[in-house]
Write a structure and sequence with these properties.
378 residues, seven-stranded mixed sheet, alpha/beta, D-Amino Acid Oxidase, Chain A, domain 2, FAD/NAD(P)-binding domain, 2 domains, five-stranded parallel sheet, 17 strands, globular
């Protein structure tokens, strides 16, 4: 871009979207600082595994110059999918990827984050920066206020800060709403040694069963780990309503065994043999459609712009957003022109996807033959 002086770009959020945007900007000679509330790259678990699709996530990785490294880390065998009958655990569907199939290979979220993080110039990411608010006039500069009292100025603020974005209120009054579905996450570690049955049952990819009201979805991660998502149509505060909290592992397990009491005993092992406590994850989504008027100094990408149920599109769309935004900044004379061009494409795409997925999360509970494009615990 030819803007003079060089714009000060602040990206809020060091997830895959924010890091992808910073990486592609740097490849085009444009500097950006990434601010994240975490104390460092390893202070919290990065989540499970996800697949990157050739028409979005992999496009972004190519623009980032990281496709070769991704190919070395990705697990094509993770595309295996098994579906079982809930009542007797008979297999009803089994997808086996071929050796050369690389359509949507799996990669751990942590591995993807590290791949992107390590590709950036040193000190690009500023840890311990929890954003509180964005102030200042529409035409800039913007003031960013952080929890530790730090205030910085920026000519462009990019909100890549997820579902509960602190940047979004500048552009929109929309807030995430619970969609009536909760995931309860269970971990299994060192599965080849400690959980032989679970390892064999899940295979190299994913396994699931549903009965119309409940679903168990198990997903292999790298390093001998498996995560199981216990999916139910319940209120966001369902645990509190039963008098339990997330640390009451024995109480939750007893409740789940009662609720899944008519399921095959082999499937119940996905509930009873986990290592450590369960993690409660209510699912939220932004209103459909979610749009705003263009602003010359602020924009959004990923979940901050279009939070949807975790059905295999979240990280992929965030990375494609990031790629298109970075390329727009590099290819336009002004930030305002870049934002308008980017948002015209991004909002149209995301609103179509939001409409398509609106209510689709309930389909995870359906007792029918599995559509392998329907779910990814991303």
């Amino acid at each position: 871009m030819s803007t003079t002086p060089t714009p000060r770009i602040a990206i809020i959020g060091a997830g895959p979207g924010g890091l992808t945007c910073a990486r592609i900007l740097q490849r085009h000679g444009i500097e950006a600082a990434v601010y994240d509330f975490a104390s460092g790259p390893n202070d919290r678990n990065q989540g499970g595994t996800l697949d990157l699709h050739p028409d979005d996530g992999q496009i972004a990785l190519k623009e980032a110059g990281l496709m070769e490294e991704f190919t070395r880390l990705a697990r094509p065998e993770g595309q295996e999918m098994r579906q079982f009958h809930a009542g007797d655990a008979r297999i009803r569907f089994h997808q086996r990827p071929t050796e050369d199939q690389f359509f949507a290979p799996e990669i751990d979220r942590g591995q993807l984050r590290d791949l992107l993080l390590n590709s950036l110039k040193p000190a690009t990411v500023r840890w311990n920066h929890a954003l509180q608010s964005v102030e200042g006039p529409d035409d800039g500069p913007r003031q960013l206020y952080f929890a530790d009292g730090t205030v910085i100025e920026a000519d462009l603020v990019i909100g890549a800060d997820g579902a509960w974005s602190k940047v979004r209120p500048v552009l929109s009054d929309a807030t995430p709403q619970h969609i009536g579905i909760n995931y309860l996450e269970a971990w299994f570690n060192d599965v080849e040694t400690q959980h032989h049955f679970i390892a064999d049952f899940v295979g190299q990819g994913s396994a699931m069963a549903a009965d119309g009201e409940r679903c168990l979805f198990a997903q292999r991660n790298s390093g001998g780990h498996i995560r199981v998502y216990i999916i139910q149509a319940v209120a966001a505060d369902w645990l509190a309503q039963t008098g339990l909290n997330s640390q009451d592992t024995d109480g939750i397990r007893a409740l789940l065994l009662d609720r899944f009491g008519d399921w095959a005993p082999s499937l119940l092992r996905l509930i009873t043999e986990n290592d450590g406590p369960y993690i409660d994850r209510p699912l939220y989504a932004l209103p459909v459609p979610h749009t705003w008027e263009p602003n010359p100094t602020v924009t959004l990408l990923g979940d901050a712009a279009h939070l949807m149920p975790p059905l295999g599109v979240g990280v992929n769309l965030a990375m494609l957003d990031a790629s298109e935004l970075a390329l727009a900044i590099a290819g336009h004379d002004t930030i305002a022109d870049a934002i308008r061009a980017y948002e015209k494409t991004m909002l149209s795409r995301s609103n179509e996807m939001q409409k398509m997925l609106d209510g689709a999360a309930a389909g995870l509970l359906a007792d029918e033959t599995f559509d392998p494009s329907q779910i990814d615990a991303d």
